[in-house]
Each structure stands twice: as C-alpha cells, then as structure tokens.
Amino acid sequence: MSPPYAAPEQFDPAYGSLGPEADVYSLAIVMMELLRLEPLMKGAHIGEYAARHCATERPLPSALGLDLPPAVEDVLARAVALHARDRWADVGVFWGTLKHAVQTASREEPSGIRVRDFEYVLSDETIESECL
Fold it and tell me: What gap in Å lies between CA 63 and CA 60, rounded to an integer?
C-alpha cells in the first residue's frame, strides 16, 4: 500500500472489502495529480493519510481547482467515492466510461485544454508508447 494513493477501505474495512474498486480510487487520484501537477494527498505519517482518504469531503476535481466538463467531473467523483460499493466496479469500466466522457466533451468543447490533456493520456497511442 502506498498511503498517498490508498483507498479508504485500505485504512478502514468499514468502507468496504479490498477489491478492484481500490485500484479505481488510486488511478483517479493519480489522474487528478497529473492534471494539477502536484500531489493530491499530503501527510507526515500514515494517520494523516488515513484521515484525508477517509474524510467525508471527497477530493473532487472542481474543489481542487480543476475546470473539467461536468461529465468528466462526475466520472472522477464516482471513482473517489468514500465507499468501495459506490465506485466503478473495476479499472476497465472506469477507464472506458472516462474515455467516453472525455471524447463526448471534446466534441462539445473542442478548445478545452483539460479535455485535450485527458485525450492525450487516454489515447491508445500514448498507452502503447508510454506504458508498454
């Protein structure tokens, strides 16, 4: 477990069983960090990370100063839900839904820089060249 990216259920099982939903949470945190260009969760010790990840106030993109289309915000908001049961079932479902929301937003708002950032990150070419 890496505390800055750990899902709430990794700190407290009251938030759900550990499963693929934790990966969804962690990926959403990483994606928001990439868009902000700074760490999302900061702490001096594991207790501080636990308090931040388990807080009822969720790390929503708009609250973090990210200006994203509403559909993209909604997908990310569900990905960082407090309870595992309220998140996307797995990374594949999250990724596909996010990609669709970004593509739809891109058609509606072609000049949005944040949408273009997401399009680059989500493109098949980027995945193949950067991750494989």
Answer: 5
DSSP states of the chain: --GGG--HHHH-GGG--SSHHHHHHHHHHHHHHHHHTS-S---SSHHHHHHHHT-SS---TGGGT----HHHHHHHHHHT-SSGGGS-SSHHHHHHHHHHHHHHHHHH-TT-HHHHHHHHHH-HHHIIIII-
pLDDT tens profile 30-60: 988 888 888 888 888 899 888 888 888 888 8
Q: Which domain holds residue 59?
A: 3-131
How many domains in the chain? 1
